[in-house]
Specification:
The protein has two domains: 206 residues, 3-Layer(aba) Sandwich (Rossmann fold), CATH 3.40.50.2000; 160 residues, Glycogen Phosphorylase B (Rossmann fold), CATH 3.40.50. Helix content is 40%, strand content 18%. It contains 14 helices and 14 strands. Strands 3-4-2-1-5-6-7-8 form an eight-stranded mixed sheet, sandwiched between helices. Strands 11-10-9-12-13-14 form a six-stranded parallel sheet, sandwiched between helices. The longest helix has 24 residues. It is globular.
């Protein structure tokens, strides 16, 4: 094994930050980072990117006390049968090189930790069958939901269940996602919740320096799931009731331009500021602490990290009753409205902005620390690892 004093854990993520996309899979990176002083962590990240070369050369780096092995390659752009076969061959080739690299570095693990099935099961199952290395699975993805249009292939579902049958434990980032996975027909002998991490040091209660009523929205600007147009319709209604307020919209994505144009159509450009993507979490935290509420109108959320970050800052949340949001936004932490109900959303925003005394900042922060802080998630991870480590 690679380290005689610390348990060796192999993270196998579907998504992880890289030079091609530094924001991809930040939640998995945070899980790895918070236990890097308690375990010897290796990350094996295999992913196709259009701008990558075809050499399958391992990129090996030490990042925050974590050994990260990235094999980034390009796939055919065609959807032909031959191209689909080539993509599968490329994936197995990349994982073969990844496992070989792990062996050459003398970093065979005591335990593998899959983050998001199903291609990531390939190296975990190899180590399970040939080295008797146990593994656990953590799910983050919304594709288990009925309306996702995914996981309809019989053989794909069979492979996922085959993997879960051999997994020591399945965790998901919320009870909602665990329930959704079960409703899709999948099962594992042991399950629990493992939320994503919130940096409760950076995201903390700070005094507000402006008297202007400020709403903040942070998302990936994808209207199908985030219902951004519906949210702007509610803001249009709010503008008829409240004369002075500002909506700050942070993020970028496929519908960014469309939403900017829609805001202009509704004559909302005087009350909306589009900040674009902000990578610096301290800057994001500052924007949240200077706001009066976080606004979400999502059609589904497997776990809203930004809602948990707002609570850590003592900022109430107005959102829908969808997905995992009711697990985070408790009755005294904000207001939840019915899905697609723009009038309810407008009324909830108005109530939070005009009656801030209804919400206790300290209670919100205490809840965030107890459930989402680095210390809380580290304890859950280490408890899991200690149960299943191959000694």
């Amino acid at each position: 094994m690679s380290n005689l004093t610390l348990p060796s854990i192999l993270f196998i993520p579907r998504w992880y930050p890289s030079r091609f996309d530094p924001m991809l899979g930040l939640f998995t990176q945070r899980h790895a980072e918070i236990i890097a002083n308690n375990a010897d962590i290796t990350v094996l990240f295999i992913h196709p990117f259009p701008n990558a070369d075809k050499k399958f050369t391992p990129e090996i780096n030490t990042e925050n006390n974590i050994t990260v092995i990235r094999i980034l390659f390009s796939n055919p752009t065609s959807s032909s049968f031959i191209s689909r076969i080539k993509k599968v061959v490329n994936l197995f080739k990349a994982y073969y090189i990844g496992i070989k690299t792990i062996k050459n570095l003398n970093r065979l693990p005591n335990l593998s930790h899959i983050h998001v099935l199903s291609r990531t099961a390939i190296p975990a199952l190899y180590l399970y069958f040939f080295y008797k290395t146990p593994f656990i699975v953590t799910e983050h993805w919304s594709r288990y939901m009925k309306n996702s249009g995914q996981l309809n292939n019989y053989f794909h579902k069979l492979f996922i269940q085959f993997t879960l049958n051999r997994s020591q434990h399945l965790t998901a980032v919320s009870q909602f996602l665990l329930n959704t996975i079960a409703q899709k027909g999948f099962s594992c002998k042991r399950t629990s919740i493992l939320p994503n991490v919130v940096d409760t040091t950076t995201f903390s209660i700070q005094p507000k320096t402006s008297s202007k009523k400020t709403i903040i929205h942070i998302s990936t600007f994808e209207d199908r799931s985030k219902n951004l147009k519906g949210m702007l319709n509610a803001i249009y209604q709010l503008k008829q009731k409240l004369t002075s307020f500002e909506l700050i919209m942070v993020g970028d994505g496929e519908d960014f331009s469309m939403i900017k144009n829609y805001a202009a159509q509704l004559d909302l450009t005087d009350v909306i500021t589009f900040k674009g993507m902000i990578a610096d979490k301290k800057e994001v935290a500052d924007l949240i602490t200077q706001s009066d509420l976080l606004l979400l109108f999502s059609r589904y959320e497997t776990m809203s990290v930004v809602a948990a970050e707002a609570l850590a800052c003592g900022i109430p949340v107005v959102a829908t009753k969808m997905g995992a949001l009711p697990e985070i936004v408790l009755p005294n932490f904000g207001i939840l409205v019915d899905n697609e109900n723009e009038t309810q959303l407008c009324d909830a925003i108005y109530k939070v902005l005009t009656q801030p005394e209804l919400f206790n900042k300290n209670q919100m922060r205490e809840f965030a620390i107890t459930n989402f802080s680095e210390e809380a998630i580290r304890e859950r991870l280490l408890d899991l690892y200690n149960k299943y480590l191959r000694r």
